[in-house]
Amino acid sequence: MDGNAANSIYEYFKEQYLYTQLPHDRKFLIENLHFEGKHYLICHSCYGRRVNDALSRAFAYVLSKMYNTSVMIGLTDQNFYLQSTKKFNAKELIKQMKKEDLDKILKLAIDKTDVLKRRFRHCAGRSLMILRTYKGKRKNVGRQQVSSAILINACKRISDNFPILKEARREVAEDLMDINNATQVIDWINSGRVKVEYTETKLPSPFALNLVARGYSDILKMEDRLEFLRKMHQMVLAKIALGR
User: pTM score, two decimals?
Assistant: First the structure.
């Protein structure tokens, strides 16, 4: 790459290093952030989006049961956040996460989600439980989704291990997400191969800025979002300068 691109990457990592810590494949960094009246646990997990998707949903499910509250999720390839009005204890969360429980936790976490219902519709269509065409007339996707919502509840009443339901769960956990490598990450954390570090911040760290800004994408226009990023970045640089 050219010098400008290389320098941009260097400055990006330098700002993160000076502000807090650098996460990597052997360091799972959890950033505890209170920002604009909301509490965030930002997990800097360098294992890819599919692994982060599985970990974030499992973490969110455990926190929702621990604190009896709803938890919002945002994720990228490098990190994910868990956001609520209540302040979470990150150390207690990690203690709750055990390798042998991850499959069970993820199954419970995705059981009532729209993503499972959509996958179930595809599986039911392939197994002819839902007919895409009936008497020469093609059903639209909305009709098929309504039919699948009725069928998935019926399958659960018949058996929690109904074959089409099991396949839908497998597709979510293994094809959409990466439960196998997520389990490996939890195993590494339990064995000490991956070290979990905790940090408190008052502003999103450079690595977390874009992730937090995505949470405002529904209420901010693109121009406002860019301005929000610039403003936050300047405040982070000012805090680094004061610290030095």
Answer: 0.85
Same-domain pairing of 119 and 197? no
Range of the domain at 188: 3-99+179-243
Q: Which two tokens stand for residue 58?
A: 């499992």
Place of tokens 């039919």: 147
**How many whole angstroms separate alpha carbon 130 and alpha carbon 134?**
10
Q: Which of 28-42, 113-127, 189-203 has the lowest mean pLDDT?
A: 113-127
Q: Which of 132, 148, 176 is the last residue of a domain?
A: 176
- CA–CA distance, 185 with 54 (Å, rounded to integer): 11
Evaluate whether residue 239 is within a structural domain. Answer: yes
Element (H, E) at 125: helix 114-126
Specify which residues 83 forms β-bridges with: 40, 72
Q: Report the number of distinct structural domains present in the chain.
A: 2
**Contacts of 236 by beta carbon, 8 Å cutoff, 6+ apart:** 15, 19, 203, 204, 205, 206, 209
